[in-house]
Amino acid sequence: MSIIKQELTSDQYRPRKEDKFTFGLWTVGNQGRDPFGDFVRPALDPVKSVKKLSELGAWGVNFHDNDLVPFGATPAERDRIVRDFKQALSDYGMIVPMATTNLFYHPVFKDGAFTAVDPAVRAFALQKTMSAIDLGAEVGATTYVFWGGREGVDAEASKDPVVAVQRMRDAINFFCQYIIDQGYNMRIALEPKPNEPRADTYFPTIGHMLAFIYTLDHPEMVGVNPEVAHEHMSGLNFVHGIAQALDAGKLFHIDLNDQKGPRYDQDFRFGSESIKSMFFLVKLLEEKGYDGPRHFDAHSYRTEDEEGVWDFALGCMRTYNMLKAKVQQFNADAEIQALLQDLNGGDQTYGGLLSGYSSETVKKLKETQFDVDTLAKRGYRYEKLDQMTIELILGLR
Ligand code: GLT
Ligand code: MN
Ligand code: MN
Fold first, then answer.
1. Does 67 contact ligand 1 (Cβ within 6 A)?
2. What pLDDT score does 350 carry?
């Protein structure tokens, strides 16, 4: 029995609309091309993707302008494609929470888009993105993603990196104002990536993006769209990056997938590799008030035919729900919770010294004698805590 058939016989991990799972049309539509080999799967009709994803329990789909409307389509072709697509959304009860622009595939973008050295390319990128924003608004998208794509360098000498940052700022400011002027209900989410397809991409991590946002004209309209694989490519802790984005109120969207450490961008099925990190990611998202889409920006292995693509899509969603159930189990595990309480309780004798700055606290802190030897001898029992976590994740608790 295939995974899909098993799944349709309903179980607690079955994806449901209220789970808010979404996929890019480019994810299930990925044809398996890589730098060493050509397409292995035929193109998937977006209408079919909408139908199939809805049947599997997804809530919505996202797209780049050209995932739906081919580059260079006439206005009449565009309108027909969009009409059929909107019909499919309504027929299968799906929505489009996010849209984005393809600013990397066509050769015109080989040196980037908003940071390209050629002013004509930069202006064309503005024009293309305005049309794509209009398309997104037409299908109800409320988040607009900017992934840098080819915004970067191979030859460092080619661009002044400060000018590149300024050009990106000018572009994002331009689109914020465009969205405001059109009256669209839309926020912008910036997606960092350290490299690939360029040798180095500008704004490589969540932290770089967060800092950049506060230099914009409308920082309140702009947040981040972090991707698991992209931070893992940099060897960073994704969970901590997400925590910082959440703390800043800037987690507008998220790209869930997986990755085997720092190497090329693998976009694997969610939770297929970094199980412990993804457990803590799901814990964070579920507990800290993220209520946006759980978007999968991943694709199936190149070895797969179409059935494998649907196995992949269902696998992403099931693994999220399985990890969510594990989080509930973690929170209900008496032994784990007792240890956590014990660990975080600590000695309250000095608690009063940590309630913020005051001249009184300064005075008290200066006078306090700390028993450093006793503090230094403390064992924290993190081995036990981590092992209990592992046993729980592996199903042994
Ligand atoms: C592309 C990229 C992704 C981005 C998509 C949005 S396009 O597939 O690899 O990480 O999220 O532009
Ligand atoms: Mn992505
Ligand atoms: Mn990726």
1. no
2. 80
- Tell me what pLDDT residue 1 has: 44
- Cβ count within 10 A of residue 237: 12
| pLDDT per position as a tens digit, 330-339 | 999 999 999 9
Q: Is 231 in the pocket of ligand 1 (CB under 6 A)?
A: no
In which band, very low, low, confident or very high, does the pLDDT at 351 lie, cut at 50, 70 and 90? confident
- Helix and strand numbers (H, E) in the chain are 16, 10
Active site residue 64: yes
b/e for 325-346, b at 16 or more Cβ within 10 A? ebbeebeebeebeebeeeeeee
Residue 111 near ligand 1, beta carbon < 6 Å: no
67, 111, 255, 297: the catalytic one is 67
Gap between the terminal Cα atoms of the chain: 28
Q: Is 134 annotated as catalytic?
A: no
Question: Is the pTM here over 0.85, yes or no?
Answer: yes
215, amino acid identity: T
Please tell me whether residue 201 adopts helix, strand or coil conformation: strand
Query: How many whole angstroms separate alpha carbon 241 and alpha carbon 200?
Result: 20
pLDDT per position as a tens digit, 148-196: 999 999 999 999 999 999 999 999 999 999 999 999 999 999 999 999 9
Is the CB–ligand 1 distance for residue 255 below 6 Å?
yes
Identify the pLDDT of residue 3: 55
- Identify any residues that bridge with 137 across adjacent strands, giving them in sequence order: none
Query: At 98, is the secondary structure helix, strand, or coil?
Result: strand
Which pair of tokens denotes residue 373? 């030897």
Cα of 94 vs centre of ligand 3, distance in Å, is 24
Minimal-distance CA residue to ligand 1 atom 4: 147
